[in-house]
Write a structure and sequence with these properties.
By secondary structure, the chain is α/β, with parallel strands linked by helices. It has 2 domains: 180 residues, Rossmann fold (3-Layer(aba) Sandwich), CATH 3.40.50; 136 residues, Glycogen Phosphorylase B (Rossmann fold, 3-Layer(aba) Sandwich), CATH 3.40.50.2000. It contains 15 helices and 12 strands. It has a 6-stranded parallel beta sheet with strand order 2-1-3-4-5-6, sandwiched between helices. Strands 9-8-7-10-11-12 form a 6-stranded parallel beta sheet, sandwiched between helices. It is globular.
Length: 371
């Protein structure tokens, strides 16, 4: 059963000569949750743990997970504004929550089998947290369970009272988790090793062959190229002297549309995003979870604009409220923020002094968990 106290003890015990097993359950609905899982795995392995990453998509029976994944991708590409409505209907207390939760719980037995023998279970997606939390509540899973909140905002679907601890990247998100009934601690945001800004470190310009003149704004909608990226590029052209460089990711149709717009640079799938950020004067994003963190760590000024509905808008508000990323709500605000970004110094905007995940899980950092 879940830990029933106002002060959580160590959830992970590191002893000389032992290698605690940690099962991380992610879900490949977009790349951010998997990226977070890889970084958690990296730091826990460095601390001496034996870590396995599992994909919730593969744990759902009858290929249901893959069906949900395909539907999610199509909805964000065809009608991104409808995503917020869809998610609101499956939140706790809403009409479709019960049948949706029952659908997710079809994965209960595979989750139990996959985590058998683990000393700790970590979830990096709300679907996983709902299932794991229910298994903890009913006693079917006796292993302590943690949710790593990859988003800046915390919708109710992220939090289940059966989860022992929720890890948030700032106090605004942790406070939301507590209001929803979860234990929560603030932890250092995890980004890929080497992604953090280092003064004096230079990256070769990935777009040197294009001979671009003047400042650039790197426009991103995450691994799916989701959201109103085309209109964002047009707005940057209309209200600044910056060249919009758009990461179209896995959306070839978006890339073809953008290639027809004079002054816009359209890029397909890239593995050098870190260098692209370093070569840009600002990053304009629509508040996807992990993309925001990478941009903040890169040292390049970041702006939120034309947020995806639902979790994107909620993330935008919290990132702005936390003082991490300003939210431009219209074209005039975008123009103002682009000017400020062009003049802003570079620094790692995630260097906030919070404890790391190993300190939190092993109890080597003292922090009260509010029930």
């Amino acid at each position: 059963m879940p830990i029933d106290s106002e002060r959580l003890g160590p959830l992970l015990h590191l002893r000389p000569g032992s290698a605690p097993r940690v099962a991380i359950i992610s879900a490949s609905y977009g790349a951010g949750h998997n990226s977070a899982s890889r970084e958690i795995s990296r730091v826990l392995e460095e601390a001496g743990c034996d870590v396995e990453i599992l994909d919730f998509v593969d744990l759902m029976p009858w290929r249901l997970g893959r069906g949900l994944k395909l539907g999610y991708k199509m909805q964000l590409q065809v009608s991104p504004d409808s995503w917020g409505t869809t998610m609101s209907m499956v939140m706790p207390g809403r009409p479709l929550h019960r049948p949706f939760a029952q659908l997710l719980r079809l994965s209960a037995r595979p989750v139990i089998e996959a985590t058998r023998g683990a000393d700790l279970v970590v979830s990096t997606h709300p679907f996983c947290s709902q299932v794991i939390g229910e298994l903890r509540t009913t006693g079917q899973l006796t292993t302590p369970a943690v949710t790593y909140l990859t988003d800046a905002a915390v919708p109710a679907l992220w939090i289940h009272p059966g989860i022992d601890l929720n890890l948030a990247i700032h106090e605004v998100a942790a406070r939301e988790a507590r209001l929803l009934g979860g234990n929560a601690s603030v932890v250092q945001a995890l980004v890929p090793a080497g992604a953090e800004y280092v003064p004096g470190r230079a990256f070769p310009d990935p777009l040197a062959d294009l001979q671009l003149n003047g400042p650039r704004a790197l426009v991103t909608g995450g691994s799916l190229g989701a959201g109103a990226l085309e209109q964002t590029a047009r707005d940057i052209l209309a209200h600044s002297d910056m060249t919009p460089v758009v990461l179209c990711a896995t959306d070839p149709f978006l890339k073809r549309r953008l290639e027809r717009i004079p002054g816009v640079v359209a890029l397909g799938w890239r593995t050098d995003v870190r260098a692209l950020m370093a070569a840009s004067d600002c990053v304009v994003q629509n508040a996807g979870g992990f993309t925001s963190l990478e941009a903040l760590a890169s040292g390049t000024p970041v702006i939120t604009y034309r947020s995806i509905s639902g979790h994107g808008a909620a993330n935008s508000a919290n990132l702005d409220r936390a003082g991490l990323i300003p939210w431009a709500r219209d074209e005039l605000e975008l123009a103002k923020h682009l000017v400020v970004a062009a003049e802003s110094p570079r620094f790692n905007r995630l260097a906030l002094g919070f404890p790391d995940i190993v300190q939190i899980l092993t109890g080597s950092f003292e922090e009260t968990a509010v029930a």
